[in-house]
Amino acid sequence: MRRRGGKQGRRAFTLVEALAVVTVVGIVLPATLYCISLSQTASALVKERAQALEIANNQMNLAIVQNTWQSEQSGDEPETTRQFHWSTHTQTWSQAGAAETDLQELHVDVTWGSGTRARTVSLVTLMYAPQGGGL
Asked: What is the pTM of this model?
């Protein structure tokens, strides 16, 4: 049977359906962009932290190999995109209830950023240092 008016089987989106789609896109798009922005920020922080850990590891290895680990040292890492400052220091290792030992803790701290956004990573290892002073 034919309908009157000649519009047989023709369908289209209504204005209400089109407005609903625009509304959903208007809600989802900003949330998606915010998530992308957060992931980029987190990625940059992870990259900086990995770079700081690499600097700490390099400075610790250098201090051990050059046998300068018993003296305090500090410096800046010039070949990086961010300004990284590192420092080393030692302290006597102690364990609760244990007798005094010949072990020293070697700490390497790397800081970057400034103000409230300053961040630090620390790397610590034990070194043997006999009471007589020689290795």
From this structure: 0.72
| Whole-number Cα distances in Å, 38 to 29, 42, 104 | 14, 6, 41
Identify the band that residue 43 occupies on the pLDDT scale cut at 50, 70 and 90.
Answer: very high
Question: What are 33's two structure tokens?
Answer: 């962009």
Question: Domains of the chain (ranges plus CATH)?
Answer: 15-128 (3.30.1300.30)
**Is the Cβ–Cβ distance between 102 and 130 less than 8 Å?**
yes
Tokens 């990284």 belong to which residue? 84
Query: What is the 3-state secondary structure of 85-135?
Result: EEEEEEEECCCCCCCCCCEEEEEEEEEECCHHHCEEEEEEEEEECCCCCCC
For residue 130, pLDDT over 80 is answered with no
Matching residue, tokens 């290895």: 61
pLDDT, tens only, 54-64 = 999 999 999 99
